[in-house]
Fold each of these.
Amino acid sequence: MKISTIITFISMAMLSAVGSAWAATDSNVAITHLDNYYKFVPAKDGNTLERIDITSQTSLTARRIAETAIVSDFYDSDKKLKKATGGNVKYGAYSSGDIFFDDSKIVMVEVDLKKPSATGKATITTSYVRPEFFNKVLILDSYDIDNATFTFEVPASMASRFTFEPRNIPADKITTTSDSKSDKTITTITVRDIKHPKTFSDAPSLNITAPQIIVRGHFSDVNDLYRYFYKYIDSPDPAAAAVEAKAKEITAGCTTDDQRIQTITRFVHDNIRYVAVEHGEFGQRPDHPSEVLRKLYGDCKGSATLLKAMFRAVGLDARTVWIGTDQISDNWTDFPAICSGNHMISAVMLPDSILFIDGTARFDNPPHVPLQLHGRQAMIEDTPDRCLTAFVPSTPASDNCLATDFTLNITPDGLIDAKGSMTNTGDWHKRFLYKLNDTPPAKHNETILNLLLNQLKGKTARLTDGTEISETSSTVTAEISNVGKAKKIGNDLYVDLNMMPDISALKYDTRDRTVGGQLSATMMFDSKVTLNIPAQMQAAEAMDPVSVSNPWFDANVTTLISPDGRSAIRTMRLETKAKFIPADKLSTFNSDLNKLAQACSSSIQLTPIN
């Protein structure tokens, strides 16, 4: 999957979601009982699985008024639909996220609840013909679930292999029992009172936070899983010579390995369009590198294998890397399962380190990788039997900085104008480049000025010294008119020095919220405002410094009067630390932000010089 934008979709081929279509919640309908039965069917050898048959029965009721309830499930070439009953059955194609095309389909059963308290039942039977794709059950629905039963029937010969691990379910809402018989073991997990989760764009993925049951046992360890993945890349490219020739052509002028790495990465970023086409085996098998080069498009697997082939063509030790973004809940070694990853990149093995390179992230050139990969565990190609694992390094928040430095002047009519600069580094710089990339060159200045005005809340702006764009940063220098107005009370002026980024935008909506928050990135704000004090006026005493430190960020605001008394300077620095804020700590997070925002926006008093 492409991860230059935040990924919110986890493929249905990797997990099973229970119940109805994922849509806006309908509090009028409730699932009174959900009964899912999973039968693990062995192959003829008795040691491997042939398939997993699933029967899902959903009993519903209308609470207040008549309603048409919808129960649905997904299927594709790896998960087959057998039968759907209980109402008006409809079928359709399904796709989501950055997927250009996949073979996912949806079946919907419309259950007519003709009056209040009416009941109905829908039954859908499916079968995982590729049982290794059945990794977890997400217990979420667009309706509240009063009671649910999940029964797993496993052949006795495999009973010690498979386990079922509930997560994110309060202990008082769950019961687990196991019954062993001569030919099978039956594990039953019952849960109650599962509310439809209110979704928030600033929350961790439902794949992480939703009530769920983890299915362990398809792979014995990370190397067993790696061997499964490796078979998809272990095939010779019939036109490898074309890739080798292109790699040598574009690096002909390079004299160092670093130059070769940078040149090949930029070639792939600039020329290979991201297009995801997924069908059959969840699209696990990548195109040959020569095909990606010929077509000039591919998915993450295509760009990763092309990078690897081109690097190897110029003598570098390059490898394929399987990885999960921060939308994934587990590391490979903790849960060796297909659903523990959703992305593929490449790596160059250096004498003293590993250089990770993402072919889909256009503006993340080595050694930078997208923030969604920082701290994630990589499964790295090594021998056909064993992989290497390593964690992608995390950069400090200071590497992703939005810095502003503006001088304010009060006009004769009391308006405030500003002149200064805004500098972006790291992820802020990347966002800036993506914004420019999405607009025609003739509109670049207009786009830049709009970004500046949106950030600093002025009325009009003009570039003064242009825009400096380098590999790692971008700086905009401009004059901005009417960023505020000095308030006159008697003979005194009160001036708002808040030219800071709007840190209150980081606050979380806590209404009806049961899930925590997730910052989009580790980042820093570093802002300075200098007010030129008009002649014949002086600043009153500056406010005391304000500092906040909590598990998620450190910040401080200071206001100083220059030694000559002709200017007032306010600085604000905020540096994030942890990305995830627990639900019960969001109020603390918001309160600390409010404290900072108030300090940033407090006015400075100017009085006449006697």
Note: The longest strand covers residues 29-42.
Amino acid sequence: MSATNCSELAPEVPERPAIKVQQTPSDQFNISAILREPDLYLERALDYYRSDRINIAREIVNVVRDAATDRVLLSADGEFLLKLLVAHFELDIGRDPSELVRDLRPVSVLQRLDALELWTRYLQATDRYEASIASLMAAKKLARDVDPTRQSRLNTQLWDLLIGMPSQRLVEMQYQTDDPDLIGWIEIAGLFNDSLSVGAWLASIEDWVDKRPQHESVEWLLSQTQQTSPGPKRIAILLPQSGSDAYAQAARGIRDGWLLAYMVDKGRAKQNTLPEFTFYDTVGKDREQLILDAFEDGADHVVGPLSKDAVNSIQATRTYPGSILMLNAPTTFGSSRPGSVRYLAWTIEDEAFKMAQSLSKRNHVRCVVIYGNEPWMIRARAEFELNIASPTRVISVNRINEFDQLTEDIGATIGIEESERRHEGIESIVQFPLEFQPRMNQEINSIVAFIDSSQLEAVLESLRFHADRPLDIYVTDSAVRGKLTELANGVQFTTDTWRIFNSEFANTVNEYFDSNPNMASFYAMGIDAYRFSNLWSQVKVAKTIAGHGSRYRLEPTGNFRRLPYWGVVRNRTLTPLSDVDHQETRNPYL
């Protein structure tokens, strides 16, 4: 077998009585006991929830919620805890708990602290990261006086928030705050986000702690680094190297991104902490056997394969002796083993999901969806429609079959034809020609378009011809690649870190692949494949982590769901746009 080798966050108040969390299974407490002492059990449910025994917490809450009002009487404290827990549960499954969150009425200082933690999660769920971090810092300051035992958990929450932000946003935050505690946290999170391996991370933290030994984060930080597992020692990368099809072209970008990450890591990490890696050519090979061969050759981690067919055939077949990062997503996910098998795939569905999720949180969005004939456009439209939710409404969905008839099709899409038919009907009744100006459907205020860059200008020209008022235009990254016209100014799009945030990696990618932005995505994906392979144990399920190419959340299935950012075209350039619902972010619990 041929392979190519490369090495190298008040007054004093009594603390809430400590609740001894049961260590027995949930079937060992009964409904009668819960109904006799619902307040006590809701306290226990909150402790269960915070110790990640979420199913037990849910069972207690369900008993209290389902009980008839004459069978259970909650105190004001109990009502607070019930609303608090239900709101946490809603956030866990991606629902909007805003009414529950704003209906909380904390009385004691401890309840304010509980509410602050929930408010922090709510702000994060709506992508208001800076406001979320400010809320968490307020919670940390309050906890110092009333419940110091929470500091470790609050520190972990702050850390999880910060490492989900790109380094460029962290730098901006550092200049915008005068809180020395927050500045220190931003610095260490930035060091982590810039690190490509455990070795580089530990080396940078060692230097930072030497310079700032009194910072509040040091004790927590050292406890985390002491539990840090080393990354893999020997990695096998399975890519189609000798072919000439689309997969082979994508593989070249991934491989080059991997090698760039390695060379940068080499200058930051201690030499003996760097992984050794071997590239295996998958062309004409049995992928499952190739994985087994790679492990037999001494690999403790495999990256690949790349094709969806290969991933489908092997993703649920067996347990392997090491971890695997597959470079595509299966059609359906098999058994959940996120500790050993994960999937990194940049799919258009991620952008469509983000678009639907964001627009569903915005008020008064009434959109028309248009899409073309390419398979990815059809898949994106389906994913968007599947995930769009009230109060946003889709007025109509239209497929553009022939872009040479685009102006006519756009007119039909936004209601011009219907307006003309009404006019003709009225004229036929009155038997007299009437002065008329076609009007578009008055409900429509935005367009969601799944199109490519060659079609964007035509769509914008057609809208300018027909639309009688400005419309918000939302597209995916594919529509804003290449040269942009003045017409595109104001267009909002979903995209990734390297496209809108200036960085060394982004500059290298843009320069190297200036003529082919499609390939640049694979280059950025290769960088993140290297990083997530080396930081395998630091990436936690249900947590958001910023990569160099994009931002991700590891799902229980093992899938790295890409979480694109919003950008806007300004002066023909791509600019970051804060994904905010335009709601006020004043903290109601301070």
Note: The radius of gyration is 27 Å.
Amino acid sequence: MSLDPKFYQTKIEQHSAQLASQRKRNRLYVAGELASFLSAIALVAAYTVWGHPLLPALAVAAVVAYIALRRCDVAGCGRAERLEALRRVYAGELSYLSGDFTPFDDGRRYAAPQHPYAVDMDVFGPLSLFHRINRTVTSGGADCLAGLLSERPLCNGAGAKRAIDRRRDFISRLAKEEAVRTAFMSYGRRGTAGANDRKVADTAAVKAALTAVQGISMPRMARSGAALAMAWALATGLTASTVAAIVTPLSGSVVTMWATAQFCAVYLLAKRPLREMGKGIDRLSDQLKDYAGLIRLAAANIAAEQDGEEQGGEVERAAAELKALVDSMDRRGNLLGLALFDTFLLYDFFLMRRLARWQQRHLGVIARWVDRVSLFDALVSAATFRFNEPEAAEAEIAETPGVLFEAEALAHPFLGAKAVGNDFTATEGNYYIVTGANMAGKSTFLRSVGVSIILATNGMPVFASRLRLSVFTLFSSMRTSDDLGHGISYFNAELLRLRQLIDHCKHASHTLIILDEILKGTNSLDKLNGSRMFLEAIARLPVTGIIATHDLELSKMAEEHPERFHNICFEISLADTITYAYKLTPGVARNQNASHLLRNILRGIAPANEGEGAKKG
């Protein structure tokens, strides 16, 4: 059973109320800004008319009030954006619980027809496993999650259990950190228009921008202590001279010449490095600021999953300084303000100095953490899946060599509360032949096994009351299709898939194969002989298999080789209506439903000779 939807509904209501309150305050800030700005202008105008000495002080107070209110307005708008993003995250999760996955990327671009199991197990595409789990907010995170679901197990050999257990424990811990996960996911909802709109930070572009920043050559004086002292002296001197020109007989032309020279010197000195930096980040400023926030969240929570040389505090400082640098670069777009600040505060010089210090101290740290953010992004998705499915179990990883799969009440995660659980055990070198009527549950059972393996070996929750398994590779053949564009018939496509399976098993230490009908594209006798030949040959490799079939003759292999071949089935009950139990039992299914169902469809069609007799009568 999934999480109670009331949890997300309550969160949506809370954030909607906070958002409405914040927007009301923002409107007051805007009104205050307008009033203080107009007041400052009016006070200056009044001073020019009446010359009262109190008026300039009041004008300065109005300007200070405007600046303070402006800062509150900017901060309030940021908080409103965050609240709206959080509300959209909760709305998306509420959609998930109702079976609507449209707010999330379905990962169809990762689908590959030749993949060992992804197509058969519905890993990618609409309503797929990826579609249900994915909450990633970076392109690197989506790639990482796709890799987890479609690549070989996390680790092979002696370290497999430790690595998977460690990831499972991290996912379980992160699932409890609801505020952290939601804050992280909210970056994908900030600045979007519609409820289902998402933005994904381009990891490759961010890496390219960081590489560009790394390649910027800074003047030596940017890091010089003497240059810093001179900059402060020049800024202080010009400000003092300006004040002196107002209150003393000092000529204004001296101040003007000093200011012009100072502006030109600062602008020309910092022009090249800041232009190079601008090329790298201008189009990515929002993404870089987002990445800075994502890195800070990841650094505070990822230590349990990935060891790193950097301490969390250092990474967070590096990310905070990156965001401040990008904000400072954005402010350079105001040319009038830039001229003023470069002249009196040497803004570009100090910005260049900050960039040089950040480049030297933190650039390498941030570059390394971009990839770690991708992993954390994928694990946030896994942890959210864990949180949304509290009734799902945590699989136990066994150190048993070879294939071991022991499940109790195993169900398919896509079916929800209506799923019927089944007990099933598979051990190394054994083959399980599954028989049953159409729609009796064979294919769903095969996919339940496959999907559970994918989830369990990534430390994600499984839909069973208990699951214990070893680490092995998986290969399936369930949805073979022809390719007329390349002249490949259905039967030829089946042969190519089986050849791919054999090649895979030759190079894998232990493999579980899942097959839904072997050689469907040929006649019954040829199909039976070919299926027997294939199973007898593949049994010589370190392979374990689950094979669904309608051919009851294939089940006789369990009589010929009882030590390795076993029959299990999904039986149905035939009467006026067909009863599907969807329960896995030992033995061979005897009842089939094709004729029964077809008879019901044809019931309304009268034979031609009966119609002619009626006319004659």
Note: DSSP finds 20 helices and ten strands in the chain.
Amino acid sequence: MSKLVIVESPAKAKTIQKYLGKDYEVVASMGHIRDLPKSKLGVDVDNGFEPVYVDIKGKEDLISDLKKEAKKSDFVYLATDPDREGEAISWHLAQMLGLPMDENNRVTFNEITKTGVTNGMEHPRTIDIDLVNAQQARRILDRIVGYKLSPFLWKKVRRGLSAGRVQSVAVSLVVDREKQIQSFKPEEYWSIDAKMTAPSSKKQFAASFYGVDGKKTELHSKEETDGILKRVENAEYTVTDVKKSVRKKSPAPPFTTSTMQQEASKKLGFAAAKTMKNAQALYEGVEIEGMGAVGLITYMRTDSLRISDEARAAAYKYIESAYGKKYVPSAPKIYKTKAGAQDAHEAIRPSMPELTPAKVKDSLTAEQFKLYKLIWERFIASQMENASLDTVSATIDANGCTFKATGFSVKFDGFTVLYEESKDDEENKVLPVIEKGDILKLKAIEGSQHFTQPPARYTEATLIKALEENGIGRPSTYAPTISTIVNRMYVERDGKQLKPTGLGEVTTQLMKDHFKHIVDAKFTASMESNLDEIEVGNKEWVDILSAFYKDFDATLKKAETAMDGKRIKVPDEETDEVCDVCGKPMVIKIGRFGKFLACSGFPECTNTKKIIKPTGGVCPKCGKKVLQKKSKKGKKYFGCEDNPTCDFMTWDTPVSDKCPKCNDGTTLFKKGGKMFCLKEGCGYEVEIKKEK
């Protein structure tokens, strides 16, 4: 007989088993074991929104095994993830296994280390029903919106579409940004930049035009700019003021889920889903050589900036040993968590700061290592002393026209010796010694024309930031929301940018016309606040659902009446390709499985073709063109245009370089940091040189 501990994943089970020993049996539920049925609404909207839960299809054997294990155990601990979703899984397990709801059988681990597991097991509690109700309310809310609204979209736009509370707002943000870009009217403005030298040095430095007669002046035309240039022609450039100061530069706080996803996108090029997948693995446990399974980071779904005293002490110990005492701050750095944040967990940090990235590199995949290094460096830097910069600002007069020159030098590098946020790209711009009253020598001066730029399209990083700033969704929802809107073809990737498809634009407009609450950021944010209030026991979940459903149901009926007999066409995307059957232009349409080429002469001509992208590469087997293709699951690969005659395919990307060994124009391919030839018998490969 033993004690049974149930977690979600086998990796987590393996790590925890190592710490608990032979008196415990640790098993995995593989996530949720019960959910609302797929084939129907599964919620009694007329009787207190009572949900009907069913066992998840395919988990029958697992459920049977869990029941057997529970029956032969002295005690069952529910150790699922420490958040709403994890609490709900524990509640479903307790229901399924017939465990008493007033029993102290719920344990949580902020980090899966010996300390974290021991601490969790020493403080069991009852299942938090408020947390469970918050998850139930979210699940039912999303089910109502999805199951009631999706059929409306099928009838009015196209079969197979789906709607969702958070995803519809996310698409709306992308659509609205695209409209701002399209309607943007650029405005002309000018700048004047000068190159000068001071009496103390022959090295040139830059100064920029600031204003006239002591007032800041904006230049809007060439005529205005030429007027200033004429005024300063042959003028004497005199330093009228020099200000010197010391500027402190503070490190960024440790990661929350949102900032981790944003920074991994900017620095590593990771999609949010990839970041969370790797973070989950680092949290649950990785086999480290000489240590066994170790959870390397704290729980990865959090919006708190709090860290434990033990973690801070471990960071200080490392900082002092690696960099010296002056890099340890004189007072602890406390980062203020934003209002409304869930503070149940610490910020994301290494569970054992002494495990540097170098020590665990050989035990991690390339992606895990990159993310761990990012998390580790961000955390250690957040606990280091500020950087200190000597700054100089000089004001220069030329015939009543003011120019300004600024510069700085690093007095003390502090945390920047280890890590800086990706936005911090300043160059170390040092001015020569400049004194008040100095007469400067002008070396060059010119006016430059500029135009105001439209707002940038969202990237994954900036969309996550916008969702967080608007209070839409929570740490656990950012990654799946973006995956959903891309997979369902409301939004598409253009490099790193996100842009709406025609489907996304017409669907958003339909939602705005008839369901403005669903795509309204403020309304969605208020629903998130209500869920938070349920979580802390301040509001009843049934009351929140009742208030929402009454308005939603009336809105849906009104929309169905207004749109009776009407259908919205998704605009086709024009191309310069010609139909090889009838000669009419081909257009790009969106179908259930993605984009495809179709004849604009439909229905008279029903010719359709796959969209194929040439790569410039040649097939190493037959010499014909290599094309970019997509698998059934939407994964990009490369294959010969002569398929099925030639069976060449690869996941590796063709590059413009040719194989110097074959010397016959054979294309090289790349993967990771290497380029190589795939021609049989060649074997040529070379490391890709990194740009400095």
Note: The mean pLDDT is 91.
